[in-house]
Amino acid sequence: MPALNAVTPAQLARLIGLPDAPVILNVRIPGNTAEDPALITGSRLHPQTDITAFAPTRTGKRVTVTCKRGRKLSHGAAARFLFVTPSEVPDLFHATPFGIEGVHFGNRAEGCIFNAMPGDFPLHTDALDRLAQIVRSADTDRRHYTSRTAGLLAKAVGLSRLFRDNLQLYRAGMAL
C-alpha cells in the first residue's frame, strides 16, 4: 500500500488530462534522462537540486513528484514541498507559520499550538479548553493525557483512508 501522500501509477494515469490534474514534476538526474528520455505525458522536467525555484509556480495547485524509480529523488523533492523553513512560509505561501519550533504560534512548553492560541486571543471557554487537551494529547503524542485522544486518533486515521483530498477530509472531519 502506498504512503498516505503517495499516488500510484494507475491513480496518476486516471488524473492526467483532467481539469484538476496535478502538476507532474519529474526530478530525474541528467544521466537518467539521457538513458531513457521518455517522460510521463504532461510532466515537467526540473532539476531536483533546485526544487525551491519551482515552488512559486505551484501556488494553489497539487503537485506529483516523479523520478526514474519513484524513490529517493522524488521522495526528497516531495518532502521539500511539504516541509519548508519558517522563514520561507510568508514568501512562498503568503501565510503565518504555526505549530513548529521557533515561531510565535509554535508549540510552547508542554503544549501545542492549540494550547498557545487561546492564550493570545480571548478564546477561553470550557469546551475549547477541553478540546485543547484532546488536541494537545494527539499532537504531542501523549495519548495518556486524556481518554478521548484514542477516539480522535481513530477518527483521523479512518478519515485519512477515505479521502485523498485534504479539503474533503477536512469537511468530513468538521462534520464529526
Mean pLDDT: 76
Global Rg = 20 Å
Strand order of the largest sheet: 2-1-3
Question: How many domain units?
Answer: 2
Fraction of helical residues: 40-55%
Question: Could you tell me the strand content as a percent range?
Answer: 5-15%
First and last CA, distance: 27 Å
Major β-sheet profile: 3 strands, parallel
Task: Give helix and strand order, one letter per element, not per position.
Answer: HEHEEHHHHHH
How many helices? The count is 8
Pairing-aware structural class of the strands and helices? mainly alpha
User: So what's the overall shape?
Assistant: elongated
Question: Which residues form runs of ≥5 with pLDDT under 50?
Answer: none
- Strand tally, please? 3
Topology summary:
Layout: H1 9-15, E1 23-26, H2 30-35, E2 44-45, E3 63-66, H3 72-82, H4 89-93, H5 113-120, H6 126-139, H7 149-162, H8 166-175
Parallel strand pairs: 1-2, 1-3
Helix pairs in contact: 5-6, 6-7
